[in-house]
Amino acid sequence: MIPGWLADVPVVIDRDDARRAAETELSGYDYQTAQPNVVVRALTWLGRQLDRLFTAASSVTPGGALGLLVLLAVVVLVVVVIRLRVGKFARAGRVPRAVFEGHVRLADDYRRAAEEAAAAGDFAGAVRERFRAIVRELEETGVLEEMSGRTADEAAREAGRHLPHFRDELLGAARLFDAVHYGGQQASIVDYERLAALDRGVHALGSGRGNRGASLAEETT
């Protein structure tokens, strides 16, 4: 039996209203600027919970008042948790992330570090160091000017203007670097081999010019 004070609580939210309220909240700026899979998963999960709880509430209690109150509390809690987590993702996504940290080494040094990491099964570290080898190679050959604080995306876009046949691969490599190094995404041997192949292509292009210090930018534009 429902306590008298609880039975008197006006409940005006129904299934459609609750769903619309949740979707409106999750369509805000922070959610839309976060990773799309987070928003999709949140909406899908919340929709399932709404259906289950409304069905349970209507069958367990007269009028479904208690179930609806519980549902409302769950919806509020879920939205708060998602807002906190998505807010972190959105803020992190807006912070520029530099390719290099601390002392910048030679491209060959980064290659060796990448190979050692790959041999040890640390493919996240291997991806990170191999992408740095690519960017450093582009700087050493003059395709890119040496610049502190340059992000992976900036390096890929600028290099892609000078090396259009590598443009898509460079952009893909930059996204992988950011996702793995700054986003915590797992990397695989396939990811590493893709970057290694790109690095070999960029390195061969520079080696074929004879003078390693000459600017490739002038010869590829």
Automatic annotation (TrEMBL):
Pfam families, A to Z: DUF4129
Tagged with keyword Transmembrane helix: yes
Domain of life: Bacteria
Transmembrane segments: 63-84
Keyword Transmembrane helix: yes
Keywords: Membrane, Transmembrane, Transmembrane helix
Domain annotation Protein-glutamine gamma-glutamyltransferase-like C-terminal: ranges: 130-200
Official protein name in the record: Protein-glutamine gamma-glutamyltransferase-like C-terminal domain-containing protein
Species this chain originates from: Amycolatopsis taiwanensis
